[in-house]
Amino acid sequence: MSVALDLTTTMVDEDELMQAVLGYLKKKNLTETETALRKEAKIQGDEDGLHMDKMKQVLTTYKSAQQQEKALAQFGSLCEFVENSLEMYRGELSLVIYPIFVLIYMELILSNQQKIAREFYNRYKGQIEEREEDLDQLATITSKEALIINTTFNQFRSNKYIVRMCKDSFNCLLSHLQDNSHVLLLNLINVHLHVDVFDGIPRHQIQLSLSRSTLMGDGMKSVNAQRMYYGVTHPVSLLNVLLDPDNEFDEIEPETDPKKKKRREKLILATVKNKEKIEMNTPPPNRRIQYPSMTEAEVTAHQEMIQEVAGRYRISHKNQPTIALYTFLNSKSLINAVNMSEDCKLLSAGLNNSAVKVWSLTRNKIPRMRDPSELAGVSMADENVMEILMDDKNGAKSLTFYGHNGPVYDVSINHNKSLVLSCGQDCTARLWSLQTHTQLVAYKGHNHPVWACDWSPLGHYFATGGLDRTVLLWSMQHIAPVRLFAGHLGDITCIKVHPNGNYVASGSSDRSVRIWEIGTGICSRHLTGHKGAVTSLIFSPHGHILASGDETGTILVWDLSTGAHIGTLTNHTGPVTSLAITREGGVIISGGMDSVINTWDLCYVVENVENMTEYNANEDVLINRSRTKESPVLYLATTRKNLIMGVSNYSPKS
User: How many angstroms separate the CA atoms of 42 and 45, rounded?
Assistant: First the structure.
């Protein structure tokens, strides 16, 4: 049952209201009506009433108070209707309660009705499901000034909250509002909500739980209905390279070991079955981003990578993973970000003291280009020109770059280990050469600190994002960004470029993930369901699956062909700081601030997608759980042989 709120503490004084009415009657020359009102109200004298401006203010305040009273009564009726509705519709109908609750509360605060706002909050907060943190934050807003500076709830005034429900649920809601003449709620929904109606049955509880956790509601169905060309094209795809009969790999490296030969034949057989599906979803020529042709050195390196991956270790419940963990000591608040090269032979880190460091993880030093005086007579046409240019003897085991004017928040090594990208508090992204050991360029395009950056797996392009809520795409050939992607309602917290180089995924503090098509600039996918800021992203090697982790310790798995959520992995007790995936894409590895590394069977999640289960310590999904020694995990990667490489920061409890 709805309980009436105390509305006696209005901002309109009764004497002022009477004087305003008398002033209005006098202005309209309604003398008889004015005299009758004075007589009935026993008002002596013949005052002119209030000043015109004061009269307008009093009457406007009175009208506003009347509307607020009606809105509160209609909201109570709506809550009662939802509570008594059929169970199959109740879940979807309850989705409109939270945004309307927030909007009414903010309106009361803006009208200086703090006492009524507090009573309203205490009365109805129990009607809101799975929103404890948001409600606690809303309760801290007790004045106009506090509301104006609150970026989270200001989104309700400048953007529409999206609610998805089936046609039957929507018709029930509409009938209730119209039959009971809830005009104020209808206007509120029309102005501040977007109801995305679909045909079919109401959504089940897991889908509704994802909807209740988002900042501004569900993602638009029309966005996720667009076709996404997630297929990975040559030369990134291992499948296409192995199937190419003209590839030199088959000729120069014939397989003699019967066991390895049989394993390779199985791999190629599986490749044949998936080839048609892969080619069907690769970007067409008119929507494919043009990348520079591979150099001879890059072709050779790619063939070497194929040879290593072909003989990889397959992680499973029977074949437990092997993890190599590098740990930083005495650097509790110094390391902000870590990244490894594709072959896991170089490690880079962004530091709080504005430095960028790079280490070699092998016995080999990081070579440096020879002095120009030593290169006289060298021809660029020579086959081994790079070997001639680089001086291995005078190389270094580690490098330190200075140039940023503030902490460095993210780093990324490009595909051929020649460049390191960094970004930081000084609003710039900087490019460092691992060949000349110098800074090459500082890219300026963001207006606020840059939190994240990532290279395209094909090189040449990279993406950055930060506090200004935009994602910028850069090309090595231009000093200015070539694309700007805007749409997030919060900071860009993490970025990942798709394996085919045609899409960029961005995670945000608005609890959503967006995937942008580089060629057209449109948002191809809007994925909502996280209960906290998104902290990490990883694509599967074939580009079909995306996994995203957040600050609550939850990992959501997405099918990019439809934009559908297909699984939830919950076994971390702290923020998920890094995600990695094996070379064949069958296993996800996650690390977090809880000093735990979890290994998940992604194939099981995909094969059981119809169950839509939240997997915690499920023995069918969780392959391995490893705990570090008081060392939060900063970064994870897999080698070409599927050895798991991790980086942590030793943080003993004081």
Answer: 10
Nearest-angstrom CA–CA distance, 600 and 569: 8
Q: pLDDT of 204-248, one tens digit each? A: 887 788 777 778 888 777 778 888 998 886 554 444 444 443 333
Burial of 276 (0-12, 13-18, 19+ CB in 10 A): exposed
Q: What is the DSSP string of 484-548?
A: EEE--SS-EEEEEE-TTSSEEEEEETTSEEEEEETTT--EEEEEE--SS-EEEEEE-TTSSEEEE
Residue type, 301: A
DSSP letter for 220, please. Answer: P
Which of the residues in the chain have pLDDT under 70? 1-24, 26-28, 30, 34, 37, 39-66, 233-279, 372-388, 610-614, 616-618, 654
In what helix (H) or strand (E) does residue 390 lie, and over which residues does it extend? strand 390-396
Q: How far is CA 496 from CA 443, 446, 505, in A?
A: 19, 18, 5
Question: In angstroms, rounded to a whole number, what is the distance separating the alpha carbons of residues 406 and 103?
Answer: 39
pLDDT in tens, 52-71: 554 455 445 444 566 778 88
Residue 214 and residue 529 in contact, taking contact as beta carbons nearer than 8 Å: yes
Ranges of beta strands (E only) in 236-365 are 323-328, 335-340, 346-351, 355-360
pLDDT on residue 252: 35
* Percentage of the residues of the chain whose pLDDT score is greater than 90: 47
Please state, in angstroms and rounded to a whole number, the distance separating the CA atoms of residues 234 and 386.
Answer: 25
CB 508 within 8 A of CB 533: yes
| Whether 643 contacts 314, CB under 8 Å | no
Are the CB atoms for 535 and 493 separated by under 8 Å?
A: yes
- Edge to edge, what strands does the sheet with 512-517 contain? 492-497, 503-508, 512-517, 523-528
